[in-house]
């Protein structure tokens, strides 16, 4: 099973945007982005194992291992420049993938990190250790479509194992020593996100020797659902790509 879901193949697009979902998320979260970014960008959304159409695949519980697997799967798609966008857990994974790509001599042109504290400043949350109701309660607190799925008892049996796995993965993450990134980084957050403050998000500047920018939009942890046009416009402007008509 391949690692990426491409809602619309664009063989002539000069740039690929690899999108990494949040804890409990899947590639379908980024499906609407394909139309939103326009013809100059090909969206490749990462499908983590153990969910959706990869439900039969073994879950990966270590962030560094998962990043290595994603970076390795990107190798056949290295024929065009690539940017990375990750939300929440996906932001940390995108950062680790960017480090690996840089190490291999094919750094991304830009790293977008959304709704996440930086790798050196991890929260003390331990959601993975809670009982089922506690995990569901946290998903509801953060919002997003995945919370709705967890309200359904039948869906909960399917969804809860990979949601708990993802919380354990990100809560067990610790940044390892290594060269700093040299690529530009943009952090984007919602102004009412209970998970990350503007001051904390500014700490992403420490992750790179390249240019850094911070954007704050109205909304909570899943601000990018309601503010998709603004987020996509920011991505396109930053990458120097014309906005889709």
Tell me the layout of helices and strands.
Elements: E1 4-5, E2 15-20, H1 33-37, E3 41-46, H2 63-74, E4 82-87, H3 89-103, E5 110-114, H4 132-142, H5 145-151, H6 153-171, E6 185-190, H7 198-201, E7 212-217, H8 223-226, H9 228-239
Parallel strand pairs: 2-3, 2-4, 4-5, 5-6, 6-7
Antiparallel strand pairs: 1-3
Helix pairs in contact: 2-3, 4-5
Domain Thioesterase TesA-like: 18-239
GO molecular function, one term: hydrolase activity
Keywords: Hydrolase
Give a written overview of the molecule.
The protein has helices spanning 33-37, 63-74, 89-103, 132-142, 145-151, 153-171, 198-201, 223-226, 228-239; strands at residues 4-5, 15-20, 41-46, 82-87, 110-114, 185-190, 212-217. It is of the alpha/beta class and 245 residues long. The chain has one domain (4-239): Alpha/Beta hydrolase fold, catalytic domain (Rossmann fold, 3-Layer(aba) Sandwich). It has a seven-stranded mixed beta sheet. The longest helix has 19 residues, at 153-171. The model has no long low-confidence stretch (mean pLDDT 92).
């Amino acid at each position: 099973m391949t690692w990426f879901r491409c809602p619309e193949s664009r063989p002539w697009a000069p740039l690929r945007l690899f999108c990494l979902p949040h804890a409990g998320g899947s590639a379908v979260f980024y499906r609407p982005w394909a139309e939103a970014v326009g013809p100059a960008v090909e969206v490749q959304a990462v499908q983590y194992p153990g969910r959706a159409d990869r439900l039969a695949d073994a879950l990966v519980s270590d962030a560094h291992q998962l990043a290595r697997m994603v970076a390795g799967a990107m190798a056949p798609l290295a024929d065009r420049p690539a940017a990375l966008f990750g939300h929440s857990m996906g932001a940390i994974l995108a950062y680790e993938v960017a480090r690996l790509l840089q190490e291999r001599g094919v750094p991304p042109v830009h790293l977008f990190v959304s709704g996440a504290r930086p790798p050196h400043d991890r929260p003390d949350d331990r959601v993975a250790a809670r009982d089922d109701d506690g995990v569901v309660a946290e998903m509801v607190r953060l919002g997003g479509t995945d919370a709705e799925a967890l309200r359904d008892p039948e869906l909960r049996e399917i969804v809860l194992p990979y949601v708990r796995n993802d919380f354990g993965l990100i809560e067990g993450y610790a940044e390892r020593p290594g060269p700093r990134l040299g690529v530009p980084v943009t952090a984007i957050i919602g102004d009412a996100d209970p998970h990350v403050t503007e001051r904390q998000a500014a700490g992403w500047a420490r992750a790179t020797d390249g240019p850094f920018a911070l954007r704050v939009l109205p909304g909570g942890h899943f601000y990018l659902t309601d503010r998709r046009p603004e987020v996509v416009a920011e991505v396109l402007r930053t990458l120097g790509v014309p906005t889709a008509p």
